[in-house]
Fold each of these.
Amino acid sequence: MPAAETSIWIRACGWPLLAIAILGWPVKLLPPEVAREVVAGGRRACEDAGIPLAGGHSIDAPEPIFGLAVTGVVDRAHLKRNDTATAGCRLYLTKPLGIGVLTTAEKQGKLRAEDVHLARDWMCVLNRPGSRFGKLAGVRAMTDVTGFGLLGHLVEMADGSRLTARLDHAAVPLLPEVLRYVEAGCVPGGTQRNFDSYGARIGAGIDNQGGALSEVQRALLCDPQTSGGLLVAVEPEGEAGFHAACAEFGLALAPVGEFVAQGRYAVEVI
């Protein structure tokens, strides 16, 4: 059960109260027994998050969809925004990229049996660390990486903060075997649409003079994520506390970039 549904309250460092399920089901194509299994998975995800599944709504739909609408409470003092980064903040990503690539490989029938768990396991990881990060003064800005891809969310953070994000593409964590599937052409259609929407805001190359992203860079950095990780901007003085908080969740993160004074591009990929 993907964890994206709970990202809003976790990112805000609040606590959830309850969830409502939303189920769309092709009643003439799939049996109700399968729908019950899907809802049961949603209930287990709620149990993992410590909240009740209080009810829900279902509709007849051409293809199966399922999600949770979560209601929670947040302390305003711990609210984290995506437009409050400062120059010098280092960027951290809590989950590897490539979920869109691997799920596309599965849709195309190209995903090897031994790789089926790779995206699924990460999608099932709740973004619990965000609730802890929200209490850290050194965390200046935070968001979750979803359908716009890493670059799309970086553009949002950079524009909102009136800065430029400098991204080290070699430092960005990737799911195992994802490059194999990129080379096999397993790239979601949303990847190109993402790039078309913000590609002009991206500078690439060591001189950051607008060199083009390689096809592989574009496929990974614009890859739409389902239940993606948290993108966190941490000021240097707060890094010790941030890494201590990461250790509480078994995370050992390395920076993937930093914010610098606003330049020609919203994001520079080096």
Note: The CA atoms of residues 48 and 131 lie 15 Å apart.
Amino acid sequence: MADESGSLSDHELSSIEARINATTPGPWYFHLLDDDWAMNLVAISTIPDEEHVGDRANFDPGTVIAATLVQHPRYVCGADERWDENARFIAAARTDVPRLIAEVRRLRRLVRDESA
């Protein structure tokens, strides 16, 4: 639990790190695959695939770790329609969060060493 200042405890940092370590190794990449079979398929995968962007037929489904599929006509609509932005955020989180944890720990060591 965060202390009164809002700082994360070491236990919370370790819990966040454990959740990250339990996921598929990164980095993760965002893909928009749109064809007659998968209209507006937003996928997060483990490989960059610039060659087949938008081409579901040549995309390796074994690399997909998460996906949303919004067919036409839409039967699932988000409040703000930020499908792509949300998928990019999710993909980036796999590398951003470990870097943020490392930075918090580095700064804590620095403060601790300066205080000693």
Note: The chain has one domain: 26-115.
